[in-house]
């Protein structure tokens, strides 16, 4: 029996582990947190069809219980050595694991919105991130602001920490546009009287049902889209926020008052992936995400033979894409193990 | 000329075949960062001049790219060179240099095209 | 507003400020409009804090305003800056203390240029040598004068006679701080607290017992902006930008505006008068204006200095409402007295809302 070590127990890691267990291998997941599931644990309802995240979480949990693989929680990879065509892994809790192949599924981290100082995150009372909003959108979430009232006007800012030289991130985080649309609709369902504006530069509705979701947002939920990037936000005496952008389609500067500002923060590769990558001597792209051998047929292979990549540690992606990418990683691992026999 | 009470209406289409790219090219050559503008309007949102008068720094790029250079000379004079646009630009464009280049070259190409 | 978030940002932007032995370079504008401020700075440093400050009368303008208005080329500017550094090197000093924000921006811009393009530095060395025979070292530390007052704000408070407290109500005075654009917008790391939430003046106000007003247009330019003012026909831009700030701060009822740049107190002060003349609008209490102070003037008031000795009568927007709230002792009759105590005559046109 072959032993495969999967680093990272998010959606990608779990999916790879399940597939490889089904294929008859012995799998161990190393997860740095005490819980598996990754970011999914923090989300409420998922685009594109508002499936409760809970439901996906439960199915993953169920799968984990049915399959016979081990999970080492609160554990990270410390170092990796190759010996006679096998891998020898040292973990942060001083365990030694031997593996025939490795899959990195260490995911991404959220952009720290405090770095966009001009938006005042963690300074102004009414600025939150999309990740904060996910928690508020849970059934028991409280949608009142610090003034104790429901917001009357909400603005979403797209591309916070993405497509931005000043944040050091040139790439598009791919899922924040549709996350914004999803959250705007969800807010409108809860607070039918609220006015919602999305400030975007480009709307990237790339996936199945995304465009329809955007259309619904306009048609059924009266959500308004303004093409322009926010230059700054500042707090007024009543704690509402004054925001400024150019309405580029009318070609004039625009300002408005809102009582909640949601920053659609992007994805960054983060420390977890960077640490695992450096322990495994893996190469990164300029963006920091892990380098795959090519973009087509070898999109699960790292620069190091026998080490495979799954999910959003290679690029920003949705849950659906993550699952598919993880499954293809499992199939690549299988192929490779056969070849090595 | 005879007046029949109506006029022959000029086409207002941007005639791309008439496009004279010399001014644009000169500016792009000297400040290549200007190529990557994504028309987000961050610059215009923060512009201390555009807040008060009809001046839109973002549109300078489009005016150059669509050959609307006749208005450019007047327009660019409205800039106060305060530099706020450059601070906010997500593409890190050196707008100060772009503005200086437009000022310098717009006059040059005007005299050339005469 | 969450203070914790601001503290986080402040932590990221702490700069090194030299402790002593400063080579002081003056501001052209300040010497004309607020001459008492620079005197007060020297007095505080020398007599209150026992610091060594050296000035060389041969130092000149940094030519920054000419540079920003496109009449002085960059090479010329760099060579003038190099000459300043040569005077400093010759006097054996390494810490530059800059009175002006424009100059502070210029010194930083030039030094950073030399770091990025060492060839430029070599070129300027050659220019200066050829023009004046002088040689120079790049300063080890560049601090703005407000950085230095910030650094010693607690020492100043330890010697204070008055706090920034309304003596009638016992409440902290509410103060608007305004940072010169070239202090940290060009190089956020060169300013205490960075560009978006600078701490330099906030630190002084809080240490001296006042309360800072954070209003929506806090970041906006004072309205000077070189081109906005220097060309007469552009002055509408200047006054409109200042007005935007006044309108935005008015609901907070500020007791004073504190500035660290030469241009800002000048424009925030003078334009209040102009707006009153043009539109009949005033922004302070009871038809008064909002007093505008430099950080040295405020430090001086806290230290109990006579406001007239600091040249506060030079302000066009009268500062008396603030003096009264703080409980500063002053003799209104001596407002226009000369150095020798003799009256030199009231100005033909008194400051706005004077009587
Ligand atoms: C605000 C927001 C809302 C979103 N909403 C949706 C949605 O509605 N629908 C949708 O399809 N997608 C959504 N997404 C995208 C979704 O979060 C990702 O597609 C998904 O989380 C990717 O899964 P992953 O397993 O690749 O990475 P992750 O979820 O990041 O999991 C990675 C795991 O690896 C672990 N790890 C990291 N480093 C190490 C290490 N060195 N050692 C051990 N373990 C490590 C982490 O702890 C984590 O458990 C949203 C994203 C954001 C930002
Ligand atoms: S997905 Fe949309 S919001 Fe996110 S970075 Fe791309 S364009 Fe910006
Ligand atoms: S430099 Fe000119 S274009 Fe840029 S913000 Fe200032 S006034 Fe506007
Ligand atoms: S801020 Fe930069 S990218 Fe955006 S429109 Fe202006 S110049 Fe273009």
Features:
heterotrimer, A: alpha/beta, FAD/NAD(P)-binding domain, 5-stranded parallel beta sheet, 20 strands, 26% strand, elongated, B: 114 residues, 6 helices, 46% helix, globular, binds flavin-adenine dinucleotide, binds iron/sulfur cluster
Compute the number of helices of chain A: 7
Return Rg of chain C in Å.
20 Å
SSE sequence of chain A, one letter per element:
EHEEEHEEEEEEEHEHEHEEEEEEHEH
Profile the largest sheet of chain A. 5 strands, parallel
What's the CATH superfamily of the largest domain in chain A, by name?
Answer: FAD/NAD(P)-binding domain
Walk across the major sheet of chain A and give the strand order. 5-2-1-9-20
Short description:
The complex is a heterotrimer of chains A (341), B (114) and C (355). Chain A is α/β, with parallel strands linked by helices. In chain A, 26% of the residues lie in helices and 26% in strands.
Describe this structure in words.
The complex is a heterotrimer of chains A (341), B (114) and C (355). Helix content of chain A is 26%, strand content 26%. Chain A contains seven helices and 20 strands. Chain A has a five-stranded parallel sheet, sandwiched between helices. Chain A has a five-stranded parallel sheet with strand order 11-18-12-13-14. In chain A, strands 6-7-8 form a three-stranded antiparallel sheet. Chain B is mainly α and 114 residues long. Chain B contains six helices and no strands. The longest helix of chain B is centred in the C-terminal third of the chain and has 19 residues. In chain C, the strands form two sheets. Chain C has a four-stranded parallel sheet. Chain C has a four-stranded parallel sheet with strand order 6-5-7-8. In chain C, helix 6 packs across helix 7. Chains A and B meet through strand 16 and strand 17 of A and helix 2 of B. Bound molecules: flavin-adenine dinucleotide and iron/sulfur cluster (3 copies). The site of one iron/sulfur cluster has 14 residues of chain B, from helix 2.
